[in-house]
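INTERNAL AUDIT FORM
Audit reference: QA-55
Scope: verify that the stored structure record matches its stored sequence.
Auditor: D.O.
Record contents follow.
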Amino acid sequence: MRKELDSLGEKEVPDDALYGVQTVRAVENFPVTGRTAFPELIDSYIILKKACAEANMELDKLDPKKGEYILEACEKLYRSSYDEFKVDVFQAGAGTSFNMNVNEVIANKALELAGKEKGEYDHIHPNDHVNMSQSSNDTYPTASHLAIIDISQDLVEDLKGLKKDFQDKGKEFSDIAKSGRTHLMDATPVTLGDELLGYARTIERSFKNLETSLKGLYELPIGGTATGTGVNTPEGFRDKVVKKLSSEYGFEFVSAENSFEMLQSRMPMGNFMGALKNLALELIRIANDLRLLSSGPKTGLSEIKLPAVQPGSSIMPGKVNPVMAECLNMISFQIVGNSTTVDMAVQAGQIELNVMTPVITYNIMESVWMLNNFLPIFRGRCVQGISANRSKCKEHFESSVSLATLLSPKIGYMKAAELAKESNEKDIPVPKLAVKKGIVTEQEAEELFSTKNAAKSKYDTSRGEERL
């Protein structure tokens, strides 16, 4: 063990640890979940610290020798072992504990590279050198923005792939007419393809909402330091850092238009979480539709078949369940819950600072992380393997009493309603009953109630685009 000193006094730190005294205090103070920061947040923080050190060196604020060791330390720590980052995701407000964890790890790695002993902070100090021109209050939200943008790129690509999967299935099933359902009751016919193309459009709208809200995170709080005034930062510091981050990530980041607002408010992060929640709500709806449409196989709707990926029961032989859709539901429920947490944290900012940023960041990143892990599996093991039960769709189409709607222009709503009622009571399909009653001829019935006419859509299902 080695002894380190901070403003509260002395603490023992494991001799081989790169973290220091403030990290030890945080580990003792917050033994909450055992969950630590996502690797993307750690890496974003390291990239940010490197950019800040470079800016301080260029502005003649940071000693070049010390700065070079800090830069080398950042390079060696980036995408390396994350074991040194010990602070629980539920921690001190504003992320001060985690910021200091990062500062200490970089400082001690720099000291090691300089041939000094860990903890010899007279040479390279976590606060004075690694944290120069910075505060937890501007670095934590900045690193959070960077990490969320980074981790969300895969999500957007996965959603684009999911949209294509539904489009492909929509085109494949464009000729399969079936009964529509509103209020879960028989409604005018649709094609199975149209249903799935509707899902494709929903997914497209969802990832476009995500992309729009992500752009709100391009504005970075760095340079505001403690309260937005930029105290202890040299002229030009924030713009230099933002430019370096833009070059590193390949996005057009900008300095905060109003640093006070960027420390007070977490609205951009709240907007992105809102887009995630809306995506989750739509995924729940679509997953539930897939479960309903595949229900059976003998006593449910059974209009589609989902791939069998595992046995469905420990007691009922041969049972297969829609487990991939069920898992997507559970993930989406968790995201909705995460959104509630973020909502509460976003409104909890007070005066110059929202100290709840760590819980906002964690819940957003967990939401994205779960989807990143599961959506590729859901696509491959569920959506891409959907098959149509053509005979069941045909049966439902032909037996739907809502076919009487097609007669309304000829005989009026009330007479069509009477025909539908009689069809249901006597269990005679509407087309046959209409011919029997002399309302239409067999030839007229064949044309009127053909799948092409009855389930016609304003969408060109061969392209998945709307015909205008």
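Auditor finding: record pair retrieved intact. The chain has three domains: 2-132, 147-222+261-389, 400-466.
Action required: none
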